[in-house]
Amino acid sequence: LKGRNLWVLVLGRFPTHHKIGIPEFKYVANMHGDETVGREILLHLIEFLVTSYRRDPVITRLLNSTRIHIMPTMNPDGFEATKVPDCYYSPGRYNKNGEDLNRNFPDAFENNNASIQPETRAVMNWIKNETFVLSANLHGGALVASYTFDNGNSVTGSLKGYSRSPDDDVFIHLAKTYSFNHASMYKGTGCDKRQTFPEGITNGYSWYQLEGGMQDYNYVWGQCFEITLELSCCKYPPADQLEKFWRDNKVALIEYIKQVHLGVKGQVTDQDGNPIPNAIVEAKGRPHVCPYRTNEHGEYFLLLLPGTYVINATVPGFKSMLKTVEIPDNTGNFSALKQDFSFSEVSIRSKAASCPKTPLYQELERASAAVKPTVHILVLMTVMLVLLK
Q: Which of 69, 145, 280, 385 is the most buried (most CB within 10 A)?
């Protein structure tokens, strides 16, 4: 890194720190230095949000109820290195060390043995230090909203050409929220005759397999739902087109942020009301390979579409607590459904059980291949316990 900083602007009623009950959202652009549209429209978005606060009731409510982090460029060196703008390719895609940052994160499916770059490390630490719930990563070179998983194996359905996450329904909704609020993405025409994307969305793996991508890393290790937005057929268009790109994306950018209020949120506390960090909170039937845990304030956020769910809160070493919830569509109210859990017999600080960075789905694939239907039920139980640990 040439000593250039990765700048983030945080907007909200309490921009300097996390506030209990207020979800964290982020937009990141320009991780490929020669893909410039996202970088520019995020600057427009910042200006729009700041100037609309207290003037526009919707933007005011959005900023009062959400903490919004905006990183216009994740690869400033690559951007500076793009001396000759090109619609299709320039070496500025890569960082100063010639590395593609969107192939540089730990991968949940295979050992990609990437030498972690300073930009990647900075973003990984950022994800670790904030309770991000929803995110999007802005690119160029196509016109489509692409969602997790980007990589896959037989466990996630890659043999059928689609790598499905446990929250596939939510991801499809998120991608469509963007594409249908965009001026033309939903038409799915793509950038040339060979490539079409029905409704302007695609599963990442279905489009092309990618190792070490940022969106899968966010979802598996960051507990944050991220989609990748390809915003322009031309990676580095002429400056006079930028205003049109802003107009085409403005509504979609705002509507997408609102989705951070989907689903259910709450706190897990002991009998004295003290927060319990690292409690596992998941919706039944959609376990994450790296269980989603409460933050230091005992908070959890689960993005779920409207419907009936059983939420399972578990403090390691104690009995689980189950609660059935009826989730409405609350995005218009700017607050997910609230559901707290109080453990009467627990009064401990549970130690963080960090999720290993080994390819987690590789383990799952091995386990599922090893277990044949004839095997005794006890072996199945053991395998499940091993996986759940």
A: 145
Q: What are phi and psi of 3, to 5 degrees?
A: 75, 10
Residue 373 gets which letter from DSSP?
T
Q: Give which of 316, 250, 306 is closest to 281, Cα–Cα.
A: 316
Of 130, 211, 230, 282, the catalytic one is 230
**pLDDT tens-digit series, residues 278-302:** 999 999 999 999 999 999 999 999 9
Rounded CA separation 44/56 (Å): 16
- Rounded CA-CA distance 58/10 in Å is 18
Six-digit token pair at 282? 């998941």
Q: Which residue has the tokens 């899968």?
A: 216
Q: Measuring CA to CA, which residue among 163, 168, 139, 136 is closest to residue 149?
A: 163
Query: Annotated catalytic, 230?
Result: yes
3-state secondary structure of 223: coil
Residue 112 pLDDT: 86
In contact, 350 and 277? CB cutoff 8 Å: yes
* 267 DSSP β-pair partners: 299
Half-sphere exposure of 278 (CA within 13 A, CB side): 11
From residue 46, alpha-carbon distances to 158, 175, 198, 240, 271 in Å are 38, 22, 31, 20, 42
pLDDT digits (tens, 9 = 90+) for 336-371: 999 999 998 765 565 666 788 888 898 888 887 775
Q: Give the Cβ contact number of residue 388 at 10 Å.
A: 10
Q: Is the peptide bond before 149 cis (omega within 30 degrees of 0)?
A: yes
- Yes or no: say if 31 and 76 are a contact pair by the CB < 8 Å rule: no
d(CA 205, CA 228): 12
Mean pLDDT of the chain: 91
Q: Mean per-residue pLDDT for 358-385?
A: 64
